[in-house]
Known about the structure:
Helix 1 packs antiparallel against helix 2 (about 25-40) and helix 1 (about 5-20) crosses helix 11. It contains eleven helices and twelve strands. It is of the alpha+beta class. It folds into two domains: about 1-60 and about 305-338, Malate/L-lactate/L-sulpholactate dehydrogenase, four-helix barrel (Hypothetical Oxidoreductase Yiak, Chain: A, domain 1, Orthogonal Bundle); about 70-180 and about 225-300, Malate/L-lactate/L-sulpholactate dehydrogenase, NADPH binding domain (Ribosomal Protein S8, Chain: A, domain 1, 2-Layer Sandwich), CATH 3.30.1370. The longest helix has 19 residues, at about 90-105. A hairpin with a 7-residue loop joins strand 6 and strand 7. The strands form three sheets. The protein has a seven-stranded mixed beta sheet with strand order 2-3-4-11-5-6-7, sandwiched between helices. It has a three-stranded antiparallel beta sheet with strand order 9-8-10. Strands 1-12 form a two-stranded antiparallel ribbon. Helix content is about 40%, strand content about 15%.
Amino acid sequence: xxxxxxxxxxxxxxxxxxxxxxxxxxxxxxxxxxxxxxxxxxxxxxxxxxxxxxxxxxxxxxxxxxxxxxxxxxxxxxxxxxxxxxxxxxxxxxxxxxxxxxxxxxxxxxxxxxxxxxxxxxxxxxxxxxxxxxxxxxxxxxxxxxxxxxxxxxxxxxxxxxxxxxxxxxxxxxxxxxxxxxxxxxxxxxxxxxxxxxxxxxxxxxxxxxxxxxxxxxxxxxxxxxxxxxxxxxxxxxxxxxxxxxxxxxxxxxxxxxxxxxxxxxxxxxxxxxxxxxxxxxxxxxxxxxxxxxxxxxxxxxxxxxxxxxxxxxxxxxxxxxxxxxxxxxxxxxxxxx
Length: 338
């Protein structure tokens, strides 16, 4: 039977499991916060369902659970964080205050993360920036899973990007999408459950659409919108990895197994203060746009579904598969795994 957990219990279980596997308290807490938020917003594939990957990768050394990120300012509006082969979440938090401060003083600021690991739901970071009254843009690459347009061998990651836009009297607008039709983890989980996938999700080793997740994992994840998605993946690759000196996706070790060392991928965070760009009354103008969208029946803003899910989760908790819960409890209770 499914197990129901409060959001606080999600946080505590995630933190305990990561620490039992060898993560420091600070690193475990930063990742656990992101897992709690993913579960709250109904993004379960990279919530608790992804926690086993985090735990196993700490155990095998693909991510350094004891890493202490180093922050440096490289220009008046530019920051670089060396994640030291550790979690992106802790590396971001190491520079967040400086990023927000520089954005407010300069109008715009950017922070790159190098030698980093997977960041989970990147809309989480865009939302954090937006809740501080700034527009947030986030980019990350990942281990290779998308072939370049016309090719058959994975070269780009699913390479998501996110936008967070603050609103005065409502939760932020949050756009969070990958360059692929779906996250690779969704295909992995379908293969584990032995179920088919939509024929738009993946391509086999010959570049043909497939409904067999195992064949899709032998081939590549389909880019979003055909050649346009491949172009988007390239854009994110340049911004997230190229600018910060991180591994290109095809150079990174896989985030889906325990083979190889740290992937050393990259992230880029941009924070923008709309008030310093001459657009007087940005908030009021944004609400004019929102009203025009809502004037059409059936429309919704990006992020609305997340916010509804959060209200429900705060009131009722979240449901977790019993087998997954038992596995998480095993990580959390058997410190000898570390």
